[in-house]
Sequence to fold (280 residues):
Amino acid sequence: MNIGAGCTKPGDTHIYVGTSGWVSTYLDYQTVDINAMITGVLSAKPGYFNYYAELETAGKCFEWVMNHLALDEIDVYLKKTKVTEDIESKYKSLYDYLSAEVSRVPAGANGVLFTPWLHGNRCPFEDSKAAGMFFNIKLETGKRELIRAVLEGICYHLRWLLESEEKKVKTSETIRFVGGGSLSPVTCQMLADITNRKIETVSNAQEVGAIGTALVVAAGIQKTDVLKLSQQLVRPNRIYTPNPENKEVYERNFSVFKKLYKSNSAHFKSLNTECKGKGK
Fold:
């Protein structure tokens, strides 16, 4: 994946958001962090490794909130009119429509937080009982705030992974963002603001895995260095810089976000451990 993302120098970092999500830093040596559950995965280039921290559900959280919050009125009314027909005529996809809608909500989602642990979590803590939750909902909270909170929650966790990697390796100041999540300019800017890093995207961001494989094959046929080939062909197409106006609210919210698991880990275990019945 790093080769398809154009991250080919030691220290280059990329973030992926698809169904799952991760932060990966390219290294010319192998290291792991057992405590934070960060692994060192072999690269296609011998002698190189990916220092890799994973989030189990990233884009899957956005899919969940789209299906269960954004589209829940579909086919409910008597006329059975699909409200998506008009939306899809104006936008490339429902994801683009939702991105446009959440852009109307200020940074920080008016104080609402979401934990993106819909299928447990792996890093920086491993807990199959951890789950998603909305925190700090008020009477004035609307669906736009909830949907934005989901996107921000994904980005908060990715920043947490980034900071976890920083404890053992040096990550890059400019980060390549790939996967379906990088197709939304709203999410890209959000990630730049929350991580306080410059974010670059590439063309065909959803296909970087296949592109990396193709580059490895091409390099083998041409008998050339695959890393140099990737540097030549995989170039950034857009750059997002952090908006300093959003720094204070995101720092505050991120501080609370990191405390939510510790405050609720025992509750997750209690609620998500199957009760043992005493029989009929």
